Amino acid sequence: MRTVLLTGFEPFDQDTINPSWEAVRPLDGTLAGDVRIVARQLPCAFAQAPEHLQQLLDEFEPELVIAVGLGPGRADICIERVAININDARIPDNLGYQPIDTPVVAHGPAAYFSTLPIKAMVRAIRVAGIPASVSHTAGTFVCNQVFYYLQHALAGTAVRSGFIHVPALPQQAVQCGGPSMAQTTLVEGLRIAVISALNTTDDVLESGGQIS
Amino acid sequence: MRTVLLTGFEPFDQDTINPSWEAVRPLDGTLAGDVRIVARQLPCAFAQAPEHLQQLLDEFEPELVIAVGLGPGRADICIERVAININDARIPDNLGYQPIDTPVVAHGPAAYFSTLPIKAMVRAIRVAGIPASVSHTAGTFVCNQVFYYLQHALAGTAVRSGFIHVPALPQQAVQCGGPSMAQTTLVEGLRIAVISALNTTDDVLESGGQIS
Amino acid sequence: MRTVLLTGFEPFDQDTINPSWEAVRPLDGTLAGDVRIVARQLPCAFAQAPEHLQQLLDEFEPELVIAVGLGPGRADICIERVAININDARIPDNLGYQPIDTPVVAHGPAAYFSTLPIKAMVRAIRVAGIPASVSHTAGTFVCNQVFYYLQHALAGTAVRSGFIHVPALPQQAVQCGGPSMAQTTLVEGLRIAVISALNTTDDVLESGGQIS
Amino acid sequence: MRTVLLTGFEPFDQDTINPSWEAVRPLDGTLAGDVRIVARQLPCAFAQAPEHLQQLLDEFEPELVIAVGLGPGRADICIERVAININDARIPDNLGYQPIDTPVVAHGPAAYFSTLPIKAMVRAIRVAGIPASVSHTAGTFVCNQVFYYLQHALAGTAVRSGFIHVPALPQQAVQCGGPSMAQTTLVEGLRIAVISALNTTDDVLESGGQIS
């Protein structure tokens, strides 16, 4: 059966909940047309996340993969454009590991672009009244590591893949301040992202760039 | 019958929707215990809003009044602490009027404090997982005008009153960027605010201040 | 001799330097036309600052007083419009005191407006290429306390007075992040503010307001 | 003679001044030890900037190249980590050209990392009391184009190179709002960056990463 794989992360640092998992979990087992959606959780740990992701790729043989992570301080759903080959952790991951300036994949290329139709996805989410934009950095923590590993693992295949950062949930913003997005909005945004990615062969040509 | 009056504003400037009205409209006709909630819309115009508000006060004789307005760029539900006796409009209102440095009420005091239990309301909303905080400026546009007029009109009475600024709706943030809050979250936050205000006689003593 | 009194604060919290003092200290003993400028430091403590300020007012009998404080996170020189009669400290002051919801002056009015020509001052500073704006909240910490006390002490006199918040210094932003302003820019901005206030009888009529 | 090449941009869009040029222009003709610093201006145009830069590389045969650009809204000196192979212009450049999703260099790699000791440079600037940090996106406009082209042109050589984004000048922030940095601070920051880059063989190992 045609399959879309979505991943979210387990809670990180002080949090007891991770909006990336709350955003994709309700889509697990649902259908996008005749394509089933599978949602799975990744550990927030450099030493485990890539291997865990590889197992999911092997098990489900998806035609489309979207990994999702929390982007603290972000106000909208951010479709990431590029993954870079560097780990540089400001704080330790969930296993206490804090790599600084190590490559995600030794001798890998400096970066991979998303192979998702990022402009079409942004447009589709926005048309539904949900804030979204293209982002040009996925950071240098486990999110970027997973994104880079994903693109590396699928490079040269027909499987399209990419990464989305989501805002904090309202209950997290109660503690930390900053913008937030309701879970229902996140889930709907992710659902639209999946459908848009499945339905778009050639990405639309409209600006999603940044001056700096 | 015991009555709570909520007001929201009509759409303003380029907008076709105003989150302050979307936040209170669904509460119109509902009950908070044995107290009915009445929600009405105010014009976003200096020349009309106070008179319109006065008519609502006369008509419904509420025991509690909360006026609500849009706070563009705000990320949480802001319980306003103080209204000041100044109109200073950066842009024209919906009737094209743009007062600069005029008083809301000639010879009125410089300011009125909210008579709502603002700390208890912030706490109650946050306990429900919805971001909220005390705000120390309601600006100098029609929101502040309505807030000041409201406090002036009810000064010396037993009727408690105040003002709440709400974030933009997600569909507005699609256009303007910045943080947003889902309508369902706004309505729930306002509902909790009303109940908290009704149930609190003496405000709680916890910090909601700002360094600057 | 005609005198302008400027005050800045001693370092606060973790800081070893306070930009408000660095901004006014170099102006001490200088002349603005035939008016001498006196700059003095205030303690960052609720229990001491008003009394200390009163002594300075008694000693120098200034015709113009501008108190200056640090506004963490602010990007420009903020000419404050209004002081409110409330102390609400998020963190303890330099003596460990943290008042919550106490009045600055018992039975004082809710607020005092600045008696400085705030619009003319903003314009003059901006004409010199230095970012400045009107601010509508001085917070609820010692800055606001000093501002309120100052306006209260001079109410009904011909002495004009007000408050200015300045950004952090670059060396502070190295530690805390956020915007900053060079000391030379701060000093020049304050010097222009003094001259503008001395030279302006009637404030200019241009918008400095905020929507919310 | 050993040479460091610095570039800044001509004014862009509505501006009459570009802080990137004001930051490097005063360093032109100065010495860093026995190394001369040459500062030159680049056009803010996709069709001209790379060729212009190549001419400078040919003419001066520098051992170190730092291109500098304006980062509107940035509060500190941002040492860029990575250039990506994409042009995506939100607004037209100074020749009216607005490429969307075109490569900087056809068939070039997805990205190049800076070959500067970015962590040592950040540390050195910060030690001098000037805010600085590592940045993980140089945008998708002419700044990133120049950065990518520079790294591409020098790939495989011993010449080290990279890009720095600087905040707006105070006189620009007067118009546009947001944070700014004084020209003297910018020049000092750039001077330190050059010296640090010249003196550092192996970059220091300390975190400059971002969660997302």
UniProtKB/TrEMBL annotation, chains A, B, C, D:
Its EC number is 3.4.19.3. Its main location: cytoplasm. GO terms for cellular component: cytosol. It catalyses: Release of an N-terminal pyroglutamyl group from a polypeptide, the second amino acid generally not being Pro. Keywords: Cytoplasm, Hydrolase, Protease, Thiol protease. It is found in: Cytoplasm. Gene3D superfamilies: Peptidase C15, pyroglutamyl peptidase I-like. One of its GO terms (molecular function) is pyroglutamyl-peptidase activity. PROSITE patterns: PYRASE_CYS (PS01334). The active site is at E80, C143, H165. GO terms for biological process: proteolysis. Pfam families: Peptidase_C15. Homotetramer. HAMAP family: Pyrrolid_peptidase (MF_00417). Belongs to the peptidase C15 family. Removes 5-oxoproline from various penultimate amino acid residues except L-proline. This is Pyrrolidone-carboxylate peptidase. It comes from Pseudomonas deceptionensis. The lineage of its organism: Bacteria, Pseudomonadati, Pseudomonadota, Gammaproteobacteria, Pseudomonadales. The gene is pcp.
